[in-house]
Amino acid sequence: MRSPESPALAIQGLIKDVGPVPSLDGKMLRVVSDVSLVAERGQVTALLGANGAGKTTTIECAQGMQKRTGGSISLLGQDPDTAGAELRSRVGVMLQDGGLPPSARPIPLLHHIAGMYKDPWPVEDLVARLGIESFSRTGVRRLSGGQKQRLALAAALAGRPEVLFLDEPSAGLDPQSRQLVFDLIGELRDSGMAIILTTHLMDDAQRLADYVYIIDNGRNVAEGTVAQLLRHELTPDAPGGNVRTLLFEAEPGLDLTGVLPAAVDVRETRAGSYSVSGALTPADLAAVTAWWAARGIMPASMSLAARSLEDVFLDISGRETR
Amino acid sequence: MSSAPAPQAAAAPAPLGSEPAPLVRRILLQGRYETVTMLRNGEQLILAVILPLMALIGLAVTPLLDGLGHSRVNIAVPGILALCAMSTAFTGQGIATGFDRRYGVLRFLSSTPLGRTGLIVGKILAVLAVLVVQVLVVTAVALPMGWRPEAAGLLPALLLLVLGAAAFTSLGLLVAGTVRPEATLAITNLLWILLGALGGIVLPAERLPALAQAVVHFLPSGALGQALRDALLTGTVNGFAVLILLLWTALAGAAAARWFKWN
Q1: Which of B11, B22, B263 is closest, CB to CB, to A188?
Q2: Share of chain B above pLDDT 70, in %
Q3: Which partner for B46 in B50, B138, B145, B227 could form a disulfide, CB atoms 3.0-4.6 Å apart?
Q4: Would you call B115 an interface residue with chain A, using a CB distance cutoff of 8 Å?
Q5: Are strands A44-48 and A194-199 parallel, antiparallel or unpaired?
Q6: Yes or no, beta carbons of B115 and A97 under 8 Å apart
Q7: What is the pTM of this model?
Q8: pLDDT per position as a tens digit, B90-139
């Protein structure tokens, strides 16, 4: 359970129709059918879902950029559809595509944005924190993806917001920028900011989020801390969080029938690639390697992995591609 | 293994959350920012200043405007000023807004304390500021060429220019907010050429083909061109043209408010 007192953002039963859509004979398309979530101050809340699941629509409704069709939204205690500059001043937004004018230069642009606030984050400090000096004389249209994202984050932070929305924050980030941005997000969280991010990357959610909502097909289908979600039961045969997967590559057509307990799932995912998945024990591993040794099989590669958030996500949201 | 604590950089300056800057300051900032952006853009400058000046010189050295009871320059300048308003408010501002929309700039800026209203008002201020620069440049070139406007028409002409800019800004926003930016680029440039040549803006209706004569009085181009000529040539206010411009402003403004898409 999350604390009930005045969350930074509370969404209840959100519905959003768009359209009319010509390919649906002019009918409206329901892109969000039932999303409810709560985001607390001092926490990173992630909306995890595939592209088209309704994540961006949900946060755009929360920001008041799209008018919702139904449900209720409380952002810092106000309705974003009717609130004005006072609320916008306390909320920072980083869009998926940056939203920065291509002809602008970084520093004048940040000064311009900062001017919209009475008491902004000092631009020099933001520039230093996000490593913007190195490209401060380059026009926005010539920046790399990572530089653009860092500048967009700086612009979103210009008003020292209480709530920060990040739409796919690691899109286009090189590993160094990613570390820089992730470290800063952690610090902002620790300073009490409520951070709400959307991502389709499990790794982002696993590294950043205190609480995750899995969104699928316009509704939230699971929620919890990363640890709670990892304990989610995959199949009745593999209870608890002890599922391991052994992957190895060897000659095609091996038949491991009878080597392992029946509950362990063994399959050749493609010719020569094997997946052994279940509540594996050290004895199971020994059985597999002994079986190899008896037949003189030396795998080209092998790895053992604990369950990832990705497994949980795929299990919950279904494996079909949309 | 023990390690020294990592240097602790200061996080966001506490406490979190700023009040917005005052409304007037936000709008003036946006107006200044958009003005500087427009004036720094080479293509916009060609459209806003160079082409109107070329048209002025062209009309002054050719006999197109002869025989209308006034000197070539005196007839040409009001139309050139109207052309300036169309360049900046319709074509220039429309294209800029269309691409801002494509790149998400409108969405981002409207998420700041500026908001959607502040963003639009800032754009209108920028149009007016660039229009002031255009009027000064055209005046500076036209006076040595012998332009002598009717003094009684100066103030009405300025107000008409503002009204014309309002009509063309509404139309520009309507186009920019409803079609793709490439289409905005094509539509606003094509209309600039068509209305510039045949819309009664620089060439008075009596110098146009018969078919055009019948309709230009109802177009924002023809109404603004004729109203400015009446004001600056004879010091009179053309009530019908004012009505037409008000109608275009109201209709296009309402349509833009209804159908403008922010993303």
Answers
A1: B11
A2: 95
A3: B50
A4: yes
A5: parallel
A6: no
A7: 0.83
A8: 999 999 999 999 999 999 999 999 999 999 999 999 999 999 999 999 99
